[in-house]
Design brief:
There is one protein chain. The chain is built from 17 helices and 18 strands. The strands form 4 sheets. Strands 2, 3, 4, 5, 10, 16, 17 and 18 form an 8-stranded mixed sheet that branches. Strands 1, 6, 7, 8 and 9 form a 5-stranded antiparallel sheet that branches. 39% of the residues are buried. It has 2 domains: 122 residues, no CATH class; 226 residues, Rossmann fold, CATH 3.40.50. The structure holds S-adenosylmethionine.
Length: 419
Amino acid sequence: MIEDEILDELEFLDDLVAADDLNQDLKAPLLEIIREIIRTNGGSISFKEFMALALNYPDLGYYSKPDLKLGADGDFETSPETHPMYGGLWARQVLECWNLLDSPSIFTFIELGGGSGSFLLGMLASLKRSSPDCVNSLRLILVDGSKHRLNQQREKLELAHPDLDGRVDLWLLDDWLDKQPPVENSVLFANEFFDALPVHLLEASDEPQSIVSELHVVLDERNQLAFRRSILMDQAVIEHLEQLFLSGDTPTRVPISGTQIEVNLLACEFMSRVSKKIVNGYMFISDYGYEAFDLYASWRKSGTLMAFRGHNVQQNVLDLPGITDLTAHVNFTALARAAGVSWVSDELISQAEVLVSLGAFRLLDSQSGWARRRPDRFLAARKAVETLTDPNGLGRVRVRVMRRSVSAERLLCQSEVLV
Ligand SMILES: C[S@@+](CC[C@H](N)C(=O)[O-])C[C@H]1O[C@@H](n2cnc3c(N)ncnc32)[C@H](O)[C@@H]1O
């Protein structure tokens, strides 16, 4: 009798799991495509290949689908989506760069991975007020991996800044890298671009034949995506690890057994190619990440790979591909090295430091008239500044300032380094 009850219960649980699997198939049309790719690939793909499919598969990947929503209505908050003030404050830095470049008559601003275009909108609105001359010299190059994101950026720009028509070029990243010549007098800005690129997922192990395993994605007995450890064979990753752990960049020679780490070779490849597109100017790379020494610290045993849906961290990074955002922190040391010796990289600073330096709080303090006239807007701006500088939230995003063939002087965004 009790046996029957237990069997009944097990059957019920089976049904529940099967219903959940079905639900997943319906919600994530990319899942069946990935299963098929795994089957045709001999039953396994690397996690990096999985992440590339989940984020960038045409029209179904997280970043390549037509209807990506970032910010409050999406899965996670980025700084430009928080408030137009973010772009508005950065406009002050862009203007300083234009001045330091001797106010060139052609000044190229490049945005990498601009998402919905919110950064640019805020930045341009503010720049127009502070320096019409700078705006008159402006040429925009917007580069993204998805045509839908580029369309979103184009539509927003046409609506808000129709006067820039004819001075805006939109490019898919590979096309821009392959086809466009380097430009002079430029500023490049990228927020949360590099942490959205697919990573190799590795685990330090005790196995005698290899000290590191690579995590692959396979199908389990229920036809669901699952992890499997394999010996690391990828020569480029092996060379990257040798450089990482033998060069003294990191505190340990070899990560402790069981430690998970991510390696972002694509970020290095893009940085190496992107950096050659600028003859002289500045790059501002803003992202979650650390220098290698901190990123690969021995206490960070589970790595930094994370999955987000509806502003919640998800347990299983393989769930609902195309619907779940996947991200891993950036190795800023590797990025600086990839840019090559012609680029000088300054000390990493936090977004909180950058925005304080750009005058976020001073701006609010000077707005008593606005506060009386539009208290709702003033309070929203004040709340946004708090969110953007929160040391436990967006304020801990790191910013790397890089410069090539320009003066070495400290920039406005570096003027207030907090502890
Ligand atoms: C996290 S979003 C950040 C968007 C925007 N910068 C912001 O802060 O709101 C990542 C951006 O990088 C782009 N992206 C992701 N993977 C890419 C790839 N492989 N090549 C080029 N762009 C990519 C996405 O389309 C998106 O615009």
